[in-house]
Write a structure and sequence with these properties.
Elements lengths: L1 H10 L11 E11 L2 E8 L5 E5 L3 E2 L2 E2 H12 L4 H10 L9 H30 L16
Antiparallel strand pairs: 1-2, 2-3, 4-5
Length: 143
């Protein structure tokens, strides 16, 4: 965070008071959820502040924590390994409700795989001249 603040102070000026060497960036620690936080850019002279989230949101969930959970799942690891990884990389700890992000991934996986299976069935039926007579296909139901 200090490196980014130094960079901003050297290259930008406040839009309200036009002072150079005036901007600092900090985090609103009350908004932290795992790797997700609200970042505040503030002028040290006039106090003008603007904020931005450190991650995009998808369906009210922050992408950065979903990506962390996905990355851990891809290498066969879970919450305790995510905690170790974040510690080694000098990152904040993963979200307290880490398993919730695995549930999000599971729901999306079920939806995507069901759509993929349906598309494969439609393709097969189409290539069979729309004849379903000799096709034995079952598709798992969505819940």
């Amino acid at each position: 965070m200090n490196i980014i603040s130094q960079l901003l102070k050297n290259i930008d000026k406040c839009k309200l008071c036009n002072q150079l060497d005036s901007l600092v960036i900090s985090e609103d620690s009350g908004t932290r959820r795992g790797l997700f936080v609200n970042l505040v850019l503030q002028c040290i002279y006039c106090g003008q502040a603007t904020s931005e989230m450190s991650s995009d949101m998808t369906n009210e969930f922050d992408d950065i924590n979903i990506r962390l959970a996905y990355g851990m799942r891809c290498i066969g690891k879970g919450n305790s390994e995510a905690m170790t990884f974040c510690g080694i990389m000098n990152l904040p700890p993963p979200p307290a409700k880490f398993e919730r992000y695995n549930d999000i991934l599971l729901r999306r996986l079920i939806k995507v795989s069901s759509e993929s299976i349906r598309n494969a069935v439609e393709y097969t039926v189409k290539n069979n001249k729309n004849n379903r007579a000799n096709l034995e296909i079952s598709v798992p139901s969505e819940k």
